[in-house]
Amino acid sequence: LFRSGVRVRFTTEADRVELLCDSFGGVRSFDLTCGGDLLETVALPADADTVSFTKLTGSAATYEIWLTQVAPVVLRELVVPEGATLAPAPDDRPRWTTYGSSISHCGAAHSPARTWPATAARIANLNLTCLGYGGQCHLDPMIARMIRDVPADIISLKVGINVQGGSSLSPRTFRPAVIGMVQVIRERQPVTPIVIVSPIISPPRETTDNAVGLSLTKMREELQDAVARMKDCGDTNLYYADGLELFGEDCVEPYLPDLLHPNGDGYELLGKRFVEQVLNRVPLKKTQP
Asked: Which residue stretches of 2-137 are H helix?
C-alpha cells in the first residue's frame, strides 16, 4: 500500500542530504521542500536506492522530503555530511485531513509535492494528511472512524466519483452515507470544520445515469442537500464546495486528458483553486497538539 502526501521532516544546517531506500521498480520522483518552496525534484531510476539532494541552503532550516506517490517506499537511512547535525522537526502547523479517490491520490502529478493536496498545503502552510485512495472512496465506515481519530483543524471529504463509477451507492443510500460519515467524525471532532467537496467535472458522467440511477449532476444535488440538512440540525462548522467551481468546463480541454483524471498541470491548478475558494474562506479551529 502506498499513499501520497507522505514525507520526512527534519532540521539540518547541511548543504546536502541523502535518503537511502529500497528499490521498487520504475522511475520514482522525490521532492525537497523548505517552507512552501519546492527546492529540488530528484528522479530515482528503477535500479537505484539513493536519493541525493544538493539544493539545501547550508544554514539551519527545516526541510521535508516528499516520498513518491506512485510506488511503495521503504526508508533505510537519512545521511548528512560528517560534522553536520540532523534532527526530527516537530510540525505545529494547522492540521488538514483530506479524503478522496485517485483524483486526490494524484498518480499523474508531476512529482509528490505537486499533487493538488500537497500544492494546497504548501501554499496554505498546513500539515497535510492525505487519504486519497485510487479506486476507493466509497464512504467506508472504517475510514470515517480513522478520520474521526486523527486530530485535525480542518477536514475535507472529496466524494462521489467512484461511487458513481462503481454504482456502489444508490439514490436511496448515497446521501445517508455522507451524513453517516460526518456524524461518525463528529463523535470526537464536534467543532472541526468539515468541507464536503462534490466531484470535479467528468463530461461522460455529468448527466448520464449509472446502473443505479446516479449521474454526477444528481450527486452534487444530493451532497448539497445533505450539507443543508446537517446545518439545519445545528452543525455550524460544515461547508459545501462545488467541484465544478474548482475544476469545471474550462479545464477539460487543457487539463483532463482521460475526461476523468487531471494531468500534472491540472492537479496544480486544482490545488491553487482549493486554497482560493475553500481554505481561504473556511475558518480553522486550532486544536490542542
From this structure: 102-105, 116-124
